Amino acid sequence: QVQLVESGGGLVQAGGSLRLSCAASGRTFSNYGMGWFRQAPGKEREFVAAISMSGGSTYYVDSVKGRFTILKNNAKNTVYLEMNNLKPEDTAVYYCAADSTYRLRVGGNANYWGQGTQVTVSS
Known about the structure:
By secondary structure, the chain is mainly beta. Helices cover 6% and strands 51% of the residues. It contains one helix and eleven strands; from the N terminus they run βββββββββαββ. The chain has one helix at residues 101-107; strands spanning 2-7, 10-13, 18-26, 33-39, 46-51, 58-60, 68-73, 78-83, 92-99, 112-113, 117-122. Strands 2, 4, 5, 6, 9, 10 and 11 form a seven-stranded mixed beta sheet that branches.
């Protein structure tokens, strides 16, 4: 079992930045790929980014490439999502997830989920 707790969401103006954190506990963190998903009101959940077990490979949805960075610190059992040049369309609840990177980025699903953190970008 893996427990995930997100933090770092909030309200920011367009063009601003936020850093989301996801602290993991339970099974060995380094055994899992980690990912971020988001869900806007009235929309389906969307894959945002994933990072491999070692942290050596990263994957992003096209709409955030060049603006978002996913990082994994195995020593701190934490994964981060650094978000720059935020746009109003980035407004959503952001969820941290743990599973294989293939299942995260291709299957769009995971065995373990956090509770979510709200990100609101004003225009």
